[in-house]
Amino acid sequence: MEQLTLKSHRFRAEREADWRRLEDLLDRFEKSRGSSLSDDEVVAIPVLYRSALSSLSTARAVSLDQNLIAYLESLCTRAYYCVYGTRSTVAERIVRFLVRDWPLSVQELWRETIVSGALGLLATFTAYFLVRANSAWFYDFIPGGLAEGRDPGASTAALRETLFKSYGADGLGAFSSFLFTHNAQISLLAFALGFAACLPTAFLIFDNGLMLGAFFAVYAAHGLGFDLGGWLFIHGVTELFAVTLAGAAGFRIGWALAFPGAQSRIDAIKDAGRVAANVMVGVVIMLMFAGLLEGFGRQLITNTFARYGVAIATGIVWFGYFYVYRPGRQA
Amino acid sequence: MSAAGKIDSGKLARELVTPEGVDLRIVLADAGERISAFLLDVLFIVLMLVALTLGMLGAALATGFVAAEFFGIIWILGFFFLRVFYFTAFEVTPRAATWGKRIVGIRVASRDGGALTADAIFARNAMRELELFLPLSFLVAQKEVVDAWIYLLATVWCGVFVLFPLFNRDRLRIGDIVAGTWVVRVPKRLLGRDLLDRPESSQLTFTKEQVDAYGIKELSVLEDVLRHGHAETIHAVAGRIRHKIGMAHDRSLDGEFLQAYYKALRARLETRMLFGRRKADKFDKTP
């Protein structure tokens, strides 16, 4: 019976029940996000966590039982992530994102947004004037498959039909969900490519602008420029804004990588990544709207002025939400 | 934890001091664990895609293609959300781990030890476009279209991002860098019984010289041997210890002998430790 007086043995016998209880609570918390725990049990977790931590310090000092120490280390680590991890619910996080994080992050990226937007505009005008001057340029800007007959050789009537053909409601849902997923993937790519020091992102934005400008030139040559604007901007205001923001998010990361400033490079990239990620979640949401407008709105509304009306309305909504609306920085 | 496991985790062990001032000594996941977790996840995604495709096809067939478009939309959106949000959706839960990571026993954690935010999770997974999907789409692209040297350059360029985790100490992906996260081991350890609790039948006693023959390192090896209870190992280890401490003539069973010696050695070493004199191993000659 002399062994029973060993301090490490008594120590374990006294505290084991608490550890088991904490382990059980953690299991249930991780399985159900805490919804199956009663209030008392939720309150008990931090208390048990601190007592387990103190057990761990003591065990390291008095016990040579490797299994016990390893168990306590893993138990404390799990409890640590539970206690100091995020405690807000999904609904709270969504509200916070919409009310604060999204508009604030977009505001923070205003410089990058201007650069990204200017780059897109520059590309659009470049392609527009080049193709107006010599329509052979068109084939350099547009990949063969994308034109679908909308090239400089097409007749005015054929071009007009592509703008005003009404497809009816059939098949529009599938079409708009396809457009959304396609655009979202391109935007995510523009964002991720920012890590390669901005250049690939800049190329993607520029390329996008070139295609836009080239199409404009073709339609403008037939006097359909204004109508194309309606066809394009009804969803394009949202979509092009989203693409511009995706480019801006990529630029922010690439810039932090290249010029971290006073911070260490890895910290600078981390901070840039947080802001850019908020913007990107927003971009995916914007593209979802754009997909709906493109799939349903554009095919159902065939009047150019009505299309411009929708375009202007969406523009006002986004601009107001991002730049006029000023949520308090402390909330 | 086995003694061997402890040694090879040395390079990946990191300090994580809680606000209460205790170092949790976390261990980062190594490249092998990361890859196995990822491959498991890819397998799950593919299985879910197959299930989604078959399910939607079946539903469309069953309804005679009246609502085929509706099922088409679900398929397109399902495919997109699986690709973009599979990892994100799992990692924002309290366990911060996908199915693959759970099986391997690892999770995502914030590098500064703070709370893991949803935007960090989104950032680390959005970067997969660059690390995974871009190289993949490049691989399946038409090789005849581009020149060989462009192909070569692009391969190198993709390789930089894909192999990035192998070339830094913390095994960070690009996504981890951008999000400020890393991936740590959270093995689920069971609390075994205290080896001192075993019923004691032999009445072996040991002299001070006999229990001073070994140190903490040997004690933990002995603990492993006893916990695994492998008969041949017990026999061999008991023989070695008897020889070393000069107890070749006792008639006790190997298991009982080791049990008794473990207790005596642990009691001796723990008492010494309480007085601030750790005996690291059998070569440690501090009095």
Which percent bin holds the helix content of chain A? over 70%
The geometry of chain B reads as: elongated
- The number of domains of chain A is 2
Which regions of chain A are unreliable across 5 or more consecutive residues at pLDDT < 50?
A: none
User: Biggest β-sheet of chain A, characterized?
Assistant: none
Helix content of chain B: 55-70%
Instruction: Give the count of structural domains of chain B.
Output: 2
List the helices and strands and how they pair.
The complex is a heterodimer of chains A (331) and B (287).
Chain A: H1 7-32, H2 39-62, H3 66-84, H4 90-108, H5 110-133, H6 138-141, H7 144-147, H8 156-164, H9 172-193, H10 199-221, H11 225-258, H12 265-300, H13 304-324
Chain B: H1 3-8, E1 13-14, E2 26-27, H2 31-62, H3 68-91, H4 99-104, E3 106-110, H5 118-126, H6 128-140, H7 148-162, H8 174-179, E4 181-185, H9 208-211, H10 216-228, H11 231-245, H12 254-274
Antiparallel strand pairs in B: 1-2, 3-4
Helix pairs in contact in B: 2-3, 3-5, 6-7, 10-12, 11-12
Description:
The complex is a heterodimer of chains A (331) and B (287). With 331 residues, chain A is mostly helical. Chain A folds into two domains: 2-87; 91-324, no CATH class. In chain A, 80% of the residues lie in helices and 0% in strands. Chain A contains 13 helices and no strands. Chain A has helices spanning 7-32, 39-62, 66-84, 90-108, 110-133, 138-141, 144-147, 156-164, 172-193, 199-221, 225-258, 265-300, 304-324. The longest helix of chain A is centred in the last third of the chain and has 36 residues, at 265-300. The radius of gyration of chain A is 29 Å and the shape is elongated. Chain A starts with 6 loop residues before the first helix and ends in a 7-residue tail after the last helix. Chain B is mainly α and 287 residues long. Chain B folds into two domains: 3-185, no CATH class; 196-274, no CATH class. Helix content of chain B is 57%, strand content 5%. Chain B has helices at 3-8, 31-62, 68-91, 99-104, 118-126, 128-140, 148-162, 174-179, 208-211, 216-228, 231-245, 254-274, and strands at residues 13-14, 26-27, 106-110, 181-185. A two-stranded antiparallel ribbon of chain B has the order 1-2. Chains A and B meet through helix 1, helix 2, helix 3, helix 4 and helix 9 of A and helix 3, helix 5, helix 6, helix 8 and helix 10 of B.
